[in-house]
Amino acid sequence: MNSLNTLLFALLFAYKLCHTRGEGVCGDWDAYRDEKCLYVFDGVGQQAYDSAQAICENNSATLVTIHTAEEQAFLTQLVFEKRKVVDDVWIGAHRVGDVFKWTTENVDVGPYTNWAKGMPTNLTNERCVQMLPKTSEVGKWDDENCTKRNLFVCQKLQKWTTDMIQQTLLNERKQLLEIAAELEALKKATPFPIGFTYAQLPNTKEPTALWPQYTWKETSADHAGVFFRVVGGTAAPFGQVQEEASPRLTTMEMTDATGYKDKSDPIAKGGFAKLKVGATGGPWYWQFDVSNVEVRPKNQAIRIWTRTA
Ligand SMILES: [Ca+2]
User: Rounded to an integer, what is the distance from CA 60 to the centroid of its chain?
Assistant: First the structure.
């Protein structure tokens, strides 16, 4: 298994762990994914923040912490809809100096936050964080005096039995093998291998914008000004540049009544043909202008790109 597959294995394993439901391991607590068991303490009366934390600890738990919008949504639903709480509820964050921290994890709150409008007020005596029950801002956070008495939510890690772990691992292994096979197929199906050439027509996006996951280099200069034609017929061999050519005046020749013949020098492209036209009273010369324009069909310049990485 290469390093990409190893990484994928680890990520998928972590992902699946998070998505395996934790029912049955939390008893009368509520399972959040397979991470936590949550309990809304609404039967022990409202408590000050420290007291709420102590009650959690007596239950081998801590006040709840929230790190994602999904976690918040689950908690909001659990507390205010399922348990129908109508009061403010402590969560496990408090302010130290200017910074809010998750109390038991001792890490700063964020980057996910869910402050109510205008919160935190950061008043000197408002150092603990509660969730609000009001419909307009249900689940939103507000800093509040830690001595205020609130309901509260405790969390603890789920404890898995070895049977659960084994069954999960077996299921994961089976799915991972299937996914690894799909990944292999996908890798083979990469649409643009390195070296792939892309012709960019006018008014279309550059491949660097269309497929930014690849590295592209403009290679127009390798083909500057050149038209393309299919090999065969009077075309040059594959890959060889055939210099331009067009029918044009190259020599002038004349014969007069006496049989006198004269012939011009070879006429350079874009040059003049000079030819003597009379032996007596002359000589006289005609000059013929030869144009120096390439023969070309109507055309529009394009760009060529090559994928380099
Ligand atoms: Ca406040």
Answer: 42
Q: Cα of 53 to ligand 1 centre, how many Å?
A: 20
Q: How many domains does the chain have?
A: 2
Q: How far is the CA of 132 from the centre of ligand 1 (A)?
A: 11
Could you tell me the pLDDT band of residue 19, with boundaries at 50, 70 and 90? very low
The confidence band for 20, taking pLDDT boundaries of 50, 70 and 90, is very low
Q: What is the pTM of this model?
A: 0.53
How far apart are the CA of 150 and the centre of ligand 1, in A?
Answer: 14
Over residues 126-154, the pLDDT tens digits come to 999 999 998 899 999 999 999 999 999 99
Distances (CA, A) of 31 to 41, 159, 168, 171, 209: 15, 11, 17, 21, 44
In this model, does residue 51 exceed pLDDT 70? yes
Same domain? For 197 and 93 the reply is no
How far is the centre of ligand 1, averaged over its atoms, from the C-alpha of 139 (Å)? 14
116 Cα: distance to centroid of ligand 1 (angstroms)? 9
Whats the size of the chain, residue-wise?
309
- Is position 114 within any domain? yes
Q: How many angstroms separate the alpha carbon of residue 115 from the centre of ligand 1?
A: 10
Whether residues 143 and 200 share a domain: the answer is no
Question: For 178, phi and psi rounded to 5 degrees?
Answer: -65, -45
